[in-house]
Design brief:
two-stranded antiparallel sheet
Length: about 120
């Protein structure tokens, strides 16, 4: 069986990706029936911010009792870790309002280039 792409033209980018971060976590308990949701995402590429940078992040949480939540926002600036040659980003915010409630969350991205391999 073959599938026809829903994308027309050349939708794939030939641009070399700079760096992104993995993000995964859970929102805090909320709602009439207190519950949490989990999420996992990849940030957008680095965006210059003064002498530093930030990343845009967008994700949907998993579903609980027939609803989920959306988040669209930006991380904070880079936070050096280890020997200072690597970094993570902190993000504290609130999800969309669905099913009569929203959720707060706080998370740090995973480190960029976790294997430490030299990039060409």
């Amino acid at each position: 069986m073959s599938y026809k792409s829903i994308y027309t033209g050349n939708w794939q980018s030939n641009k070399k990706q700079k760096h992104v971060h993995e993000v995964q976590g859970s929102v805090k308990l909320s709602g009439r029936d207190p519950h949490e949701h989990r999420f996992s995402a990849i940030s957008g590429e680095a965006i210059a911010y003064g002498k530093d940078h930030i990343h845009e992040i967008c994700f949907f949480t998993d579903t609980f009792n027939g609803h989920h939540h959306l988040f669209k926002g930006k991380t904070g600036c880079a936070v050096a870790v280890g020997s200072g040659k690597r970094h993570v980003h902190y993000l504290e915010s609130v999800s969309s309002f669905n099913d009569g409630h929203s959720h707060t969350f706080e998370v740090a991205t995973l480190i960029e280039n976790p294997t430490g391999e030299v990039k060409e």
